[in-house]
Write a structure and sequence with these properties.
With 155 residues, this protein is of the alpha/beta class. It has one domain: TIM Barrel, CATH 3.20.20. It is built from seven helices and five strands. A five-stranded parallel beta sheet has the order 1-2-3-4-5.
């Protein structure tokens, strides 16, 4: 998470980003930041820390292409998944289904994703899994990556 992400959006775009994620906690003017991302023809995503309520994004849901649910507190890799986040993922899936109409808004989950909890995370409504330590700490990172891809896409 960076402070004042609006100052870095042009640089991310120039570096080739086609989707830019900002933490709602770092954006007092979230709608304005999302609009600046859209003006660059990038997709918009918002990240929520574990204690940040879903209501903080309800009013900008129609602007989003993805919501990232942090299932650990930001800081360092290898933290354990916070089990209560499964309920948050379910509630977000319901909120998206009820409020987004025809628009497809992805749910991404980052933090403590393991082979053991990945099926539950996907069942709760996640579309995209981030599994850094779980993949790169595995004996066979390529096989672990393929496992996560199969869990999240069925392919």
């Amino acid at each position: 998470m960076i402070e004042k992400p609006e100052n870095y959006i042009p640089a991310f775009y120039e570096a080739g980003a086609d989707i830019i994620t900002v933490h709602v906690e770092a954006c007092p003017h979230l709608h304005r930041v999302l609009q600046s991302i859209k003006q660059l023809n990038c997709k918009c995503a918002v990240a929520l820390n574990p204690a940040t309520p879903l209501e903080s994004i309800e009013w900008v849901l129609s602007e989003l292409d993805m919501v990232l649910i942090m299932t650990v507190n930001p800081g360092f890799g290898g933290q354990e998944f916070i089990p209560q986040m499964l309920g948050k993922i379910r509630r977000l899936r319901k909120m998206i289904d009820e409020h987004s109409g025809q628009k497809k808004i992805l749910i991404q989950v980052d933090g403590g994703v393991t082979p053991e909890n990945a099926p539950k995370i996907v069942e709760a409504g996640a579309d995209v899994l981030v599994a850094g330590s779980s993949i790169f700490g595995a004996e066979d990172p390529a096989a672990r990556g393929k496992y996560f891809k199969k869990i999240s896409t069925g392919v």
